[in-house]
Each structure stands twice: as structure tokens, then as C-alpha cells.
Design brief:
With about 70 residues, this protein is an alpha+beta fold. The protein has 2 helices and 4 strands.
């Protein structure tokens, strides 16, 4: 599993958090760690799904997503 954090725009309430949590749970190869307004942290299996596919699924649900740059 690889760790990934997405910045997600368009989330404004608990319903949005639940929608993203449910969406991520349905994706093959994704294990959700934490979802909060504006952010999702999860693990994914790069042999089963790519970050681009995850972003596409989030955007198809009506949100804007991008990889969160981690501090080095």
C-alpha cells in the first residue's frame, strides 16, 4: 500500500465527507484512513488503481481533487 493525500475542493459539510468516504470505500485497492472537509488521506495498491483513477472518480462525483504536496 502507498499513502496518498488528496486536497478536495467543493466539500462543505458532513454529507460531503460521507460521500467521499463511501466513494473511496467502493474503489478497488483503496483503504481509507481519514476524510475531512477539504482532504482525504488513504492507502492504495498501485497494482490495482492509480492516483489518476482515484482523482477521476472524485471529480466524477462533483468535486475538484488534486494531490496534496507533502512537506519534505
Amino acid at each position: 500500500m502507498e499513502d496518498l493525500t488528496l486536497a478536495i475542493q467543493g466539500m462543505s459539510c458532513g454529507h460531503c465527507v460521507q460521500s467521499i468516504t463511501t466513494l473511496l470505500a467502493k474503489l478497488d485497492g483503496v483503504k481509507t484512513d481519514q476524510v475531512s472537509i477539504g482532504e482525504a488521506m488513504f492507502g492504495y495498491d498501485p497494482r490495482r488503481i492509480t492516483p489518476e483513477q482515484i482523482i477521476q472518480a472524485v471529480e466524477e462525483a462533483g468535486y475538484k481533487a488534486q494531490l496534496r504536496k507533502e512537506a519534505v
